[in-house]
Design a protein that fits this description.
The chain is of the alpha+beta class and 236 residues long. It is built from six helices and eight strands. The two termini are 33 Å apart.
Length: 236
C-alpha cells in the first residue's frame, strides 16, 4: 500500500464528502455520545443542530473546537486493536489539543478504516491513513486541518511514546497532522525528534503487540506487505 514516500509526508486529497440526510441521522447518536450527555435524547431538529456543531470543525477553527470538545470529553485511555493483539494508550492531559483531537477521531470511528502503513525497523510504527474512500472523505470533510505543536519538556520520544506525524517541508511552525500518529518502537527512544513532533501519549500495555508489528515483512519503502488493520476505541 503506497500511501507515503517519507515518514512524515501528509497527502492532501480533494474528494468532497456528501451524505444523504437519512444516513447522517442514522450515524449521529454514536457521534454525540459523551459530547453532551444532556443531548442524547433529542428530536430530529435537534439532531441536525448537533450534527452541524460536529461538522463545524475546519482548518480555521480547530483550536477553538478542540478546546471546547476537550472540556466535554475528558477521557485519556484508548485501545488500539489489531490482528497482532491490542495496544493500550494513555493520552496526556497537558497536551489538550492533541488529546481532544485523538478522542474526537476515535469517537467518529475515523481510525477504524485505517492501517499501520509504515514499519521502520528499530524506529517507529506509523498509522492513521489508508486507501479506503471513507478515510479520505473524512479527512476532506474537516478540511485537512492541522494542529499547533504542544511541546513539553517532560514529554519525550521514549520507547512507547505516541506522537503526531507532520510534514517537514514548508512547515516552519511544526504543525501536526491530526490524522496520523506513530509509536516509538526503538528501545532507546528517538530523542532527535524531541521538540520536532508533539508527544501526546504513551503505551501502557501491549508492548508485545508493538514488537510483533515491528517484525512484519515490509517492502523497499517500509510499507507492510500485508495490511495491518486497526480499530481504536475510547476506554475512559
Amino acid at each position: 500500500m503506497k500511501i507515503f514516500r517519507t515518514l512524515f509526508l501528509i497527502t492532501l486529497f480533494t474528494n468532497i464528502y456528501q451524505c444523504k440526510e437519512k444516513e447522517i441521522i442514522k450515524e449521529i447518536k454514536p457521534k454525540i455520545e459523551n459530547f453532551s450527555k444532556s443531548k442524547i435524547q433529542i428530536n430530529s431538529k435537534q439532531e441536525k443542530k448537533i450534527l452541524k456543531d460536529w461538522d463545524s470543525l475546519n482548518k480555521s477553527n480547530s483550536e477553538v473546537f478542540f478546546k471546547e470538545f476537550g472540556k466535554q470529553n475528558s477521557e485519556t485511555l484508548v485501545l488500539i486493536k489489531t490482528d497482532f493483539g491490542n495496544i493500550k494508550i494513555r493520552l496526556y492531559k497537558d497536551v489538550p489539543l492533541h488529546r481532544a483531537n485523538f478522542i474526537f477521531l476515535t469517537k467518529i470511528k475515523y481510525f477504524n478504516t485505517t492501517v499501520f502503513y509504515r514499519v521502520a525497523k528499530n524506529f517507529v510504527i506509523q498509522g492513521g491513513n489508508s486507501d479506503e474512500m471513507f478515510t479520505q472523505k473524512e479527512r476532506n470533510k474537516y478540511g485537512n486541518y492541522l494542529l499547533k505543536p504542544e511541546f513539553r519538556k517532560n514529554r519525550r520520544h521514549k520507547y512507547g511514546a505516541l506522537a503526531a506525524a507532520r510534514e517537514w517541508k514548508h512547515n516552519p511552525n511544526k504543525l501536526s497532522s491530526p490524522f496520523e500518529f506513530y509509536i516509538v518502537q526503538k528501545k532507546s527512544g528517538a530523542h532527535h525528534l524531541d521538540n520536532e513532533h508533539t508527544v501526546f501519549g504513551e503505551v501502557i500495555s501491549g508492548f508485545n503487540t508493538m514488537e510483533k508489528i515491528s517484525k512484519v515483512k515490509v517492502g523497499v519503502d517500509e510499507w507492510p506487505i500485508d495490511d495491518i488493520k486497526m480499530t481504536i476505541e475510547v476506554l475512559d
